[in-house]
């Protein structure tokens, strides 16, 4: 139920409680039987209980939403902090990937496709982004794999990411070997 619907129902229940309460006062001054007054009193109390229930739910929903907004903004700030810290490394990695693609003698178009493949885009998405046909994207990806000597997308990604994503001890061991 959205907020507007909630307030419409609260208004209707509050109006019902007021109407029944007024009728209850009128009936009691006219000497209505106790069971009639009790039943009208029960209706008025039930309407007020509905109002309280909906108001409590509304306030709980607002608190929950505020907490989620805060959590979301904290996550966005954390992500931005990570991007700032990693920017130099990412730029360096991009330059190294570019250097390797050049050493494989890829064309400019093939390099663009290679970067999009590394980002995980499908051939259809690559074709849409580059405003070419899916057949062209497929042919360019095949050329990339042939020129690089790799068998497909997973080997292409592994070629660049394998050393970055291994266990920390393994990475540190390879770094020490490279320094010696």
How would you describe this protein?
There is one protein chain. The chain is mainly α. The chain has two domains: 1-89; 104-180, Winged helix-like DNA-binding domain superfamily/Winged helix DNA-binding domain (Arc Repressor Mutant, subunit A, Orthogonal Bundle), CATH 1.10.10. The chain has seven helices and no strands. The protein has helices at residues 3-29, 34-103, 108-118, 123-130, 134-148, 153-165, 168-179. It is elongated and about 100 Å long. The two termini are 66 Å apart.
Record the SSE blueprint.
Blueprint: H1 3-29, H2 34-103, H3 108-118, H4 123-130, H5 134-148, H6 153-165, H7 168-179
Helix pairs in contact: 1-2, 3-5, 4-5
Sum this structure up briefly.
The protein has 180 residues and is mainly alpha-helical. Helices cover 87% and strands 0% of the residues. The chain contains 7 helices and no strands.
Note the total helix count: 7
Shape: elongated
How much beta, percentage-wise? under 5%
Q: From the helix content, strand content and strand pairing, which structural class follows?
A: mainly alpha
Task: Give the low-confidence spans.
Answer: none
**Rg computed from alpha carbons, rounded to a whole number of angstroms:** 34 Å
| Major sheet description | none
Chain-averaged pLDDT: 88
* Helix-strand pattern: HHHHHHH
Write down the domain tally.
2
Helix content: over 70%
The total beta strand count reads 0
- Terminal CA distance reads 66 Å
